[in-house]
Amino acid sequence: MDLEISPSLTIPASELSWRFSRSSGPGGQHVNTTDSRAELLWNLADSAVLTDEQRQLLLKRLGRRLVAGVISVTASEERSQLRNRELALAKLARLITAGLVPESVRRASKPTRGSARRHRVAKEQRSATKQQRRRPAAE
């Protein structure tokens, strides 16, 4: 089952690997016998579907989550392994989508006339307060 991130980016199932283990949480005694926790692994450092720019961007932004270039996503919220697999795929898709969003460029702007006036008034008040604290001049 391929993972479609966007119309231009689809991760083939051959690049995804799964691990399953016993999950804690709801399920009663059934939890002790079923490997319902799903862990999805994707080696983005060696992925053939990413461009070099996309790879560098993801490595920079997801660096804390990576271990040797491999990103790991786990899901154990549901009792069903199938549902946890779907959740893990959705989590990975969200992570990659968020990692590939281009940074917005901040444009410098001038302070508004009102904010400049308020700033000036505050400075005058602060100056007046400090002048009142001074010792009177001896005449």
TrEMBL record:
Q: Which InterPro entries match?
A: Pep_chain_release_fac_I, Pep_chain_release_fac_I_sf
Q: Name one GO molecular function term.
A: peptidyl-tRNA hydrolase activity
What UniProt keywords apply to this chain's record, in alphabetical order?
Answer: Hydrolase
Task: Tell me the ranges covered by the Prokaryotic-type class I peptide chain release factors domain, including all copies.
Answer: 9-134
Residue numbers spanned by region Disordered:
103-139
The EC designation for this entry is 3.1.1.29
Q: What class of enzyme is it?
A: hydrolase
Q: Where is the composition biased (Basic residues)?
A: 107-121
- Please list the GO biological process terms of this entry: rescue of stalled ribosome
Keyword Heme recorded: no
Q: Which Pfam families match?
A: RF-1
Q: Which residues form the signal peptide?
A: none
Similarity comment: family membership: Belongs to the prokaryotic/mitochondrial release factor family.
Q: What is this protein called?
A: Aminoacyl-tRNA hydrolase
